[in-house]
Amino acid sequence: MTSKKLTYDVCIIGGGVAGCATAIALKNKAPFLSVAILERASNMLPNDASLPRIGETIPPQASQQLQQLGIWDSFLKCNFQQSYGTSASWGSSELYHNEYMYSTYGYGWHLDRLTFDRFMIKEAKKKGVSIQFKTSVLSSKKKSEFWYLKTNSNQKQTIIKSLFVIDATGKKAAFSCLQQVTKIKEDRMVGIYRFYNITNSNKTDLGTGTCVETDPYGWWYSATLPNEKLVIAYMTDADIANKMQIRRTHIFDKHLFKTNYTRYRTENSTNLIEPQIVAAHTQFLSSSVGNSWLAVGDAASSYDPISSLGIFKSLTMSQFAAYATVDFLKGDLSALPKYQYIITLDYKGYLKKRQEYYAQEQRYPNSSFWERRQRLQTITN
C-alpha cells in the first residue's frame, strides 16, 4: 500500500561516505536546497555490528577535502589513529618505506569505519539533510521536471518526488543501472580478508600502518586499526581465488605463512572471523550522468585497492558532484557534461598510474594474475 508523498530538491540514494559527503557539499553551496539521503541499512549498522569493517585508511591529503567540506574540526575530535606511512615489497624482495613525514599534508589516518560512517551521517544531519534509514528504492520514473521514486520503508511504500537524483550506491550503481547505463569492469579482482586482535607483544618492525607485498598469485595487504585490531587481505582475481580455494581458513593461513613480512603481524594474535570475500575490481560507468541525475563515488568509478583512493576519491568527487547538481538546477546545461569530463579524466589518470605501478613487478612472468595486468597495459597503451 502506498502512503504519503514527499518532495525534495535532491535525493541521494546511498548513505555511505560518497552520499554523505555530497549531501554536505550541496548544503554548503546551496543551503536552501532540500536534500534527502535514502539508505537501505538501519542506522549504518553492518549485519554484525561487533565486527570491524574493511576500507579503513585515508592518505594525508584527505585533510584538505575534510576542511573544504567544513568537517575537519569534528573529524579531529574522533581521535582516529594516525598513520605515518606505508611499507611495500613490490617488484623486489626488499621492504621499502614511504614516510608521510615528507608529505605536505602530514600524516594519514587508520579509521574505525563504523565510527567514521556514523560521523559522516551526523555531519550531514547537522547541515539539515533528511536521512531515511531502512529505505529501499523499488522503481523510478521521470515525469516532466520530477523524478518519482517508489520506496519501501518498514513495509510501507512511499512516493518521493525529487528534482534531481544522485546515485551513491557503490559498485552496485543501482539507480544508474535502472537508467540502462552499463557497468564496465576492467578486471575480476576480489579481496579475501580476515580481522585479528593484536597486542603490544606482537609489534613487528613494520610498526603500525599499511604494508603490501606480492606473490605469484596476487598481493597481500595488511593494516593496523584502532582498538588493537589488524586486517589482512589477499588480493587476486576471482577465478584464481576459486582455484586456490583461499577462502578456506587453512589454505589462507598456509599462503599467509609463506609471506616474508605480513605473517609476522599475526604472531600472538587471535583471529576474529574466518576469511571473507569482497569485490575489489576496477569499474567505470558508460555514463555517470543522465536526465537530471548523476553518479558519485564508487557508483561512478571504483579503483583498485592498491591506489588507496577509495574514501579520498569519494570526498573529492562529492564536491564536483555538488557543484554540477547546483549548476544544473540553476539551468546550466553544461554542468553535467563537465562533471562527466572530470570523472572520465580522473579515471584515465588512475588507469595510467595503475598500469605503471603493476609494471614494476616483473618477478612472476608465468603468473596469470600478473600477466593479465601486463597485457592490459599493452592494450591500453
Automatic annotation (TrEMBL):
Residues 8-311 form the FAD-binding domain. It holds the Pfam family FAD_binding_3. It comes from the Bacteria. This is Tryptophan 7-halogenase. It comes from Aquimarina litoralis. The lineage of its organism: Bacteria, Pseudomonadati, Bacteroidota, Flavobacteriia, Flavobacteriales.
